Amino acid sequence: MSREQGQAHLDTYLAQVHRYLGGLSEAEARETLAELRSHVLDRTEGQLSPAAVEAAIAALGSPREVARLNVTERVASALETNRSALSVLRATGRLARLSLYGFFSFLVSLTGYLLAAGFLVTAVVKPFAPTRAGLWRLADPKDDFSFSLGVSNHPPPAQELLGWWIIPIGLVAGAVLAYLTWRFGVFSVRRMARGVRRPAT
């Protein structure tokens, strides 16, 4: 009976960890849970008494922290083998739900890539749609000004600001912004990986 209680306690703990593994695929989540189960069994030397299981679980940490550790480590490890812009954005997205900094990193990365794409697309389309592509200053009914970057049909009193200069400026600004956003994403994932600490085994 004591072993059954210990097993039930371990199953409950692993189920709670599973709830926080949303940043992993189902296969990765199953592998993580199997590793955690094996770790607990090693620490208890197969003696699944409630006290032994509780001690092993306490050494691992709370379900949320254990999940955060494993997700962050897996995402950071995968990023070292594939650091394309899409992979970096996907990595920050997988970590977004784990912490406020993770969410901030994803938001900044997504905004940076969208803005970079806006500059690049506008620069490329400008020769084919010179009256529609550009950086526009818009006037609303209150005479306050706002700006619009991209390809659109803006009737007067909207004013296109850069003319043909949007091509070199857009290409350079888009490329630089995309690179800086990529570097920020890599830095953020590595920073979050350094911020987690695996408990002693």
What does this structure look like?
The longest helix is centred in the last third of the chain and has 30 residues, at 166-195. The protein has seven helices and three strands, in the order ααααααβββα. It has a three-stranded antiparallel β-sheet. The two termini are 28 Å apart. Helix 1 packs antiparallel against helix 2 (26-44), helix 1 packs across helix 4 and helix 5 (85-95) crosses helix 7 (166-195). It has helices at residues 2-19, 26-44, 50-60, 63-81, 85-95, 100-125, 166-195, and strands at residues 133-139, 145-151, 159-160. It is elongated. The model has no long low-confidence stretch (mean pLDDT 85). The protein has two domains: 1-60; 83-201, no CATH class. The chain has 201 residues and is mainly alpha-helical.
Helix/sheet category: mainly alpha
Q: What profile does the largest beta sheet have?
A: 3 strands, antiparallel
Q: Write down the overall geometry.
A: elongated
Q: DSSP helix count? A: 7
Q: How many whole angstroms does the radius of gyration measure?
A: 25 Å
* Oligomer class: single chain
Task: Give the SSE layout.
Layout: H1 2-19, H2 26-44, H3 50-60, H4 63-81, H5 85-95, H6 100-125, E1 133-139, E2 145-151, E3 159-160, H7 166-195
Helix pairs in contact: 1-2, 1-3, 1-4, 2-3, 4-5, 4-7, 5-6, 5-7, 6-7
